[in-house]
Amino acid sequence: MSQIEPRHQINWDWRAAGNFICGGSGSGLVILAALASSSGVPYWPLGFAGAVLVGMGLFSVWLEIGRPWRALHVFFHPQSSWMTREAFVSALLLPMTLLAALAAAPFVYLPDIAAGAISLAALLAAAYLYCQARILLASKGIPAWRHAALRPVILVTGLAEGCGFLLLAMALFGGAAVSPLVLLLLLLLGRWLAWRRYLSGLKAAGAPVKALAVLSEATPMINGLGHYAAAVLVLLALVMADLGSWLGALAGLVTIASGWRLKFVVVARAAFNQGFALPLTPVRGAGVPGPGDKPGWTKSGY
Amino acid sequence: MTRFVMVADLRRCVGCQTCTAACKHANATPPGVQWRQVLDMETGSYPQVQRTFVPVGCMHCANPPCEDVCPSTATKIRLDGIVEIDYDLCIGCGYCAVACPYQARHIVYKRDLAYGEKGAMRHEEARFDESRMSVAMKCNFCQDRIDSAKETRQTPGVDPEVTPACVNSCIAGALNFGDRDDSGSNVSALLAENQTFRMHEELGADPGFYYIWDKNHEPD
Q1: Which of A157, A202, A270, B8 is the most exposed place for a label (fewest CB within 10 A)?
Q2: Which CATH class is domain B4-215?
Q3: Partner-chain contact A77 B72, CB within 8 Å
């Protein structure tokens, strides 16, 4: 049955996962940096870091494509391809974020330009993150990706990672600490709920057994470290004012690491394809069809 | 309009893989890449066990997920329903391969011959296509043959010269090809006379590959 049951796809590996890992973190950071800039947190290092992360993600996926010198062909199909849309958004997001970072930097400082560019960059980053979620959703050959409940997981994971980077930066550069901590707590709750909903939705809809096994195996670490431990660290940071920024940074690091792990597991490990199935078997001899089969699935559906 | 489809009679297929071999010969696909393959599926449990041979490949869907996601427009659906790839446009991103629910797409990164360069077979040398390296490739219903039908005034699915190699080679007459929208075609007759299903129909891709599992029964 090995050729019939769902098999792991071989076309997207860690390089594709790298795009979702770095791109999600980077876009989340650009959004969170814009929010934090209004409360005095310096935008320029965060915006610059966000752009670098998005760029690293794009470079990672560029390494994956078979004909890298034709990469500009990626812009040819905005009518329906979320990959094309992601490319268009990135072409605006990167220069806009760099412009915002430059205009907000103390050695240039153009406040009027900075304010508009920071807001625009945040909007573009949100669009970029949404495109990434839709790229997975459109992959109809991979049951673990096409489930609609994966979309909020990707969105909230990117935002949580962005908040993690923000807390890390605030420990290094200083700034107000309470509101990002509370926001991270809310984002962790959101990611926990989204992940839970995704897993239960996938089980209810039916999925390749091996994909569910991979996701179930990864869940204790994602929840234990990425949600419970991170939440405890955030609560400690809120209570212990003197160690607050460093505990917050640690919570941020744990959030980033677990978010990266989550996306790596989904993109590079749980990507089992549809496999093959028969709704019924042909009528021979006795004149009645036999039962169908969908090997390797939790629910046959037949 | 024309809508070319494949109709496989599961009652007839004996799993001989002649179609697989014919496809490999016609298209010189590298080792491990089969545009047409026949699955050997065992279903049921003892003593009610059945074995079914199921030809699969690109289903030439009317609503192909691969075409939707392709960022370069390399994957196109022709007016006659054939889903084709422009190898000069494809960037080899593999998005179509993860979007296809039928595992029909392959990417090969370097020339690979069944018995190595020294043992290159004539058809491998004759049909090696550099433009197929590092891009997506798949069954195209032998579109060169079909396209020549206009010049030769022949009918795809009827005349062997303009019919896919897998269909020509089928020893059991299990594989059939033709225009579904032509009421007088062989496939239209088969679809009218028999009960069919399409694989993973619930995914909404509207595949152009039908499987016959029984004849139509007259109402009592």
Answers
A1: A202
A2: alpha beta
A3: yes
Beta bridge partners of B178: B5
pLDDT tens digits, one per residue of A129-179:
999 999 999 999 999 999 999 999 999 999 999 999 999 998 887 765 568
Domain count, chain A: 1
Q: Are A133 and A150 in contact (CB under 8 A)?
A: yes
Q: Tell me the HSE value of A193 on the side-chain side, using a 13 A CA sphere.
A: 9
User: A3 lies in a domain?
Assistant: no
* A275 and A5 Cβ atoms separated by less than 8 Å: yes
Q: A302 lies in a domain?
A: no
**pTM of the predicted model as reported, rounded to 2 decimal places:** 0.94
> Residue for token digits 């062909």?
A73
Residues in Cβ contact with A50 at an 8 Å cutoff, skipping those fewer than 6 apart? A26, A27, A28, A29, A30, A33, A97, A125, A162, A165
Report the complex ipTM: 0.94
Which CATH number do you get for residue A51? 1.20.1630.10
What residues 107-146 of chain B have any CB closer than 8 A to a CB of chain A?
107, 109, 133-135
Residues of A in contact with B213 (CB under 8 A): 280-283, 289
- Minimum CA–CA partner of B54 in chain A: A278
Show me where the domains of chain B are located.
Answer: 4-215
* Residue at A226 is within a domain: yes
